[in-house]
Amino acid sequence: METHExxxxxxxxxxxxRKGLLRALFSRLGIIVLLLLLQIAVILLLFYSFAExxxxxxxATTILAAAVVLYLINSGVxxxxxxxxxxxxxxxxxxxxxxxxxxxxDVGHRTVKSMVSHAIDSTRDAIPQDPKVLENLAAENPDxxxxxxxxxxSGCYPVYDxxxxxxxxxxxxxxxxxxxxxxxxxxxxFLEYFIIDEGxxxxxxxxxxxxxxRAGVDVRVMYDGTCEFSTLSRDYPxxxxxxxxxxxxxxxxxxxxxxxxxxRDHRKILVIDGHTxxxxxxxMADEYINRIEKHGHxxxxxxxxxxxxxxxxxxxxxxxxxxxxxxxxxxxxxxxxTYPPRQAKGFVIPYADCPLDRDKVGERxxxxxxxxxxHYVHIMSPYLILDGEMETALKFAAxxxxxxxxxxxxxxxxxxxxxxxxxxYASLLESGVRLYEYTPGFVHAKVFVSDDSKAVVGTIxxxxxxxxxxxxxxxxxYGTPCILAIERDFQDTLQKCRPVxxxxxxxxxxxxxxxxxxxxxxxxxx
Length: 526
Known about the structure:
The protein is α/β, with parallel strands linked by helices. Helices cover 45% and strands 19% of the residues. The two termini are 39 Å apart.
């Protein structure tokens, strides 16, 4: 293995030309993609080869479509998703019906679903809830305690009171704080990220990880399999192991059609020695710290947790890491001292959202904040692709007199989601929701803050993929001092935004309007 090290930029493992689309096309990954396309072609060829039996096929198609529609209406698919599927089945009855059944059967993902469920159920009591902490939260705010009860239904997510939380309004701020924390690691470092890309940020982090691994620290890295299509080579885990770093790829690309491609690990978790953790919207790539510019200025946020609540992030990481381990190990890492701060104020509930169960925890927590707000709910999100329930919750909060305001990107990273956000604007404005677009560039933050008393910072976007298809994580904060800093950051960011009004909607480009209009029907499938 050839390692390139630079004192200022850290370690680089990939040579030029070994990442990106061209590299993917001429690698094992390219072969996998080719095999997938061949499978799709064979299916279409078989379908069209029976064209001569059109009358019989038409009858069978009608019966199949009717059966699938009846199944759909009585299924647990959300109402907005049902409308989308009905349109698809109407336009392409056979293919649409079979596609629906295929996705509902979860072909190729049932084993992973069972393993994830087992990991969550078997660790449900791994971190005991301190009853005194729960009593104190209930005495201070029964509504927050009720939400804590709901969150705990989906896994081991205790309420903590001995945790300091530091808010970072930019990726650069988090990066500056992250490096010295990594340098202090003595036992273990766990990293789980949706995107890792070589450059200054990852190079500096990797330099420290390699040093710590040589010193005997247990260093583990896990990233989502989509990196194989975009930023990293398929043999990257091997390269990391050459540095003494354990590495796993979540849901890597395989040459078989499977619904498992739809479920991605969108989480961002970094845990150090069980007492320090980072989470938020920031991935390990240079655009997140504005080292390079992709879509104007990159506005992102993160939090640093120190104390008892870090145990939950340690557990979240280990649950996915241990999926394919014959003998999963949790206890040595969960029993590490957390050095709880003596003067910590407020309550923290770290939680995860699994797309393989029926509990849409990420969306429900956001809706709870909206439904219980008295004065304001201020939101930052890179995307706005809503189902009917979330749109109703936003509108109802505003109609009750709550100041509901959203900051969204002014420069998009993806054109279609940007256009889909526009389709919600008129309805939200009509109910009194205030909308703003970040003029300098792209907002990637995922933040809710309400009434100077509660907030959520994590990885959960306001879109279907986060609510329904991704593994996500976040921290619910109640009464922590950093909540005021989060609101100050929202107000500071607001000064750099352009307001969305009925007049500005009239002046939107026809292309954006038309794209949103056409794509709205399939938004739940994106």
